[in-house]
Amino acid sequence: MAPNMSPKRNEMPTQDPAVRAHNFDEVALGYSEEAAINEALRCLNCKNMPCVAGCPVRIHIPEFINKIKEGDFEGAYQVIARSSSLPAVCGRVCPQETQCEERCVRGIKGESVGIGRLERFVADWHNTFVSAPPVKPEPNGHKVAIIGSGPSGLTCAGDLAKKGYQVTVFEALHTAGGVLVYGIPEFRLPKSIVAKEVDGLKALDVKVETNVVIGKTLTIDELFEMGYEAVFIGSGAGLPNFMGIPGESLKGVYSANEFLTRSNLMKAYREHPSTPIMKGGTVAVVGGGNVAMDAARTALRLGADKVYIVYRRSMEELPARKEEVEHAMEEGIDFRLLNNPVEILGYNNPDDPRDPKNGCVVGMKCIKMELGEPDERGRRRPVPVPGSEYVLDVDTVVISIGTSPNPLIKDTTDGLEVNRHGGIIVNEDGLTSRQAVYAGGDAVTGAATVISAMGAGKQAAKAIDEYLSK
Ligand code: FAD
Ligand code: SF4
Ligand code: SF4
User: Fold this and answer.
1) Rounded to an integer, what distance in angstroms lies between the CA atom of residue 400 and that of residue 256?
2) Residue identifier of the C-alpha nearest atom 6 of ligand 1
3) C-beta of 55 in contact with ligand 2 (< 6 A)
4) Which of 401, 423, 447 is the last residue of a domain?
5) What separation in Å is there between the alpha carbon of 91 and the centre of ligand 1?
6) Fewer Cβ neighbours under 10 Å: the N or C end of the chain?
7) Does ligand 2 lie within 6 Å of residue 416's CB atom?
8) 62 within ligand 2 shell (Cβ under 6 A)
9) CB of residue 115 inside a 6 A radius of ligand 2
10) From the CB of 215, is ligand 1 less than 6 Å away?
């Protein structure tokens, strides 16, 4: 078939912004078969495959796209499945524009091939039409414990189970999936997709023990005493950072992780939830990453009258994915760029100490910023504009300025070395400073991406297999 030389990629339909701002259904609706084939025809099947070098798990991109051109969607899925265990997830949430698609030659004189959209199409096609039961391997008699059920843990568990290992995943929360279920909202990543991945692991006899906090319920040493011969730590980076400004402990101030967990995992968006959360009023989300966009768009869907993103740099430095920023703007989120909070203000009625409004957020004092000299990472440093303070009237503040690995596991495991940011130190195989203890994902790198966590889980599974097969 002749290549499609259109400089523009095939649009992916989305829900109308005015409608979707009030529901939690998925925003992007995916390609039809015709659109997927048409988009696949934009790929030039480059011999040197620059796109593959941009994918952290090296999916053979031209090969899977060629299968789509032929209408062999299951063949395309099988090509992706050789390198990625979560294509329906990565096709949706991977920062493709800075990875595979950034290197695509079609991007030089137009838009790059929609690699992520094609990956999503193929994965959804497979999930809809193919339901082959997994082939269970012969058990090899070795037991491995996985801590955390995010993308790193699930990938490590799946790869080991496929090799015959008896794998148990220990998860602190009551539902498996890590950030994929408690952080990323339903309107970007439907929970049913993650549940299907977890069910796939269970079908391979992986045990998933929820409500088990390693470091409290059990320690790593106790896991070894229970007969596990290797441990993988994929506990993520769920500890929120705060700004350290006055007023952060007022009623109505949340970390983004808490806010999103209340909505996503505790179902606070329901009409009569048992978990309280804000429902209306004005919300300010502080920060400019994907997490901040998710929190702001969630607040809108929960019924906020007005939602601000308050970010201290300009649009150019805003770290969130471009698509997410565009979606947030279309939905009516108000971006207060080059603004920084200096204090959160609370209600205080000195005449009635029992006034229930006492201690509730009523505003956020901000200062305007301008960009100064570049910092050590080359980003221009934001500096306050003297005398530019003003008060933003808000009822809820969501702080989304990053997270760090929780120190609980390190504090309860002898000889586990971490760096100054709390990330577990590993070698190139994912081996920590403790024998037979491996780690990967955000617990090692700090907050990063789904695909990098998945790649680390894969690498560690390979290393654990080599170690236990000796
Ligand atoms: P996690 O997904 O964090 O999973 C760790 C799991 O370990 C959790 O379930 C946790 O409960 C459990 N755990 C922690 N401590 C213990 C313990 N002591 N015992 C037992 N279990 C424990 N990345 C992208 O690529 N694209 C995006 O669009 C994107 N959006 C994001 C939006 C939000 C709101 C957030 C928070 C993150 C986003 N990320 C995104 C980042 C991405 O989700 C993470 O990098 C990725 O999930 C890390 O995977 P992980 O397996 O290392 O850890
Ligand atoms: Fe691109 Fe992510 Fe898919 Fe790799 S996994 S090909 S980076 S969308
Ligand atoms: Fe196709 Fe772009 Fe990769 Fe070339 S760089 S093979 S056009 S996806």
Assistant:
1) 5
2) 148
3) yes
4) 401
5) 17
6) C
7) no
8) no
9) yes
10) yes
How many CB atoms sit inside 10 A of residue 240's CB? 18
Kindly state whether residues 281 and 359 are assigned to the same domain: yes
Q: For the segment 81-134, what is each residue's pLDDT rounded down to a tens digit?
A: 888 888 999 999 999 999 999 999 999 999 999 999 999 999 999 999 998 777
- CB-based burial label for 176 (10 Å; 0-12, 13-18, 19+): buried
Asked if pLDDT for residue 177 goes beyond 90, the answer is yes
Say which CATH number the domain at 178 has: 3.50.50.60
C-alpha to C-alpha distance for 276 and 267, rounded to whole angstroms: 10
**Ligand 1 proximity of 409 Cβ (cutoff 6 Å):** yes
What's the pLDDT tens digit per position in 204-234?
999 999 999 999 999 999 999 999 999 999 9
For the stretch 16-67, pLDDT in tens is 999 999 999 999 999 999 999 999 999 999 999 999 999 999 999 999 999 9
Count: domains in the chain: 3
SS3 state at 462: helix
Ligand 3 centroid to 37 CA: how many Å? 15
Task: Indicate whether 422 belongs to any domain.
Answer: yes
| Domain identity same for 216 and 185 | yes
Looking at the domain assignment, is residue 423 inside a domain?
yes
419-427, Cβ contacts within 8 angstroms, sequence gap of 24 or more? 421/446, 422/237, 422/239, 422/446, 423/237, 424/233
Q: Are residues 338 and 286 in the same domain?
A: yes
C-alpha distances in Å from residue 247, one per residue of 243, 307, 354: 10, 19, 19
Q: What is the mean pLDDT of residues 432-444?
A: 98
Task: Give domain status of residue 135, yes or no.
Answer: no
Residue 22: burial class (beta carbons within 10 Å; 0-12, 13-18, 19+): exposed
155 and 297 assigned to the same domain? no
Residues 252 and 309 in one domain: yes
- Mean pLDDT, the chain, rounded, equals 94
* Single residue among 362, 385, 401 that ends a domain in this structure: 401
| 47 alpha carbon – ligand 3 mean position (Å) | 9
Task: Verify that 255 and 397 share a domain, yes or no.
Answer: yes
Q: What residues make up the domain containing 78? A: 17-129
Q: Rounded to the nearest whole angstrom, what is the distance from the C-alpha of residue 3 to the centroid of ligand 3? A: 12
Please tell me the predicted confidence (pLDDT) of residue 378: 83
Please work out whether the CB of residue 442 comes within 6 Å of at least one atom of ligand 1.
yes
* Same domain membership, residue 218 and residue 262: no
303 is a domain residue: yes
Q: Tell me, yes or no, whether 372 and 416 share the same domain.
A: no
What's the confidence (pLDDT) of residue 219?
Answer: 97
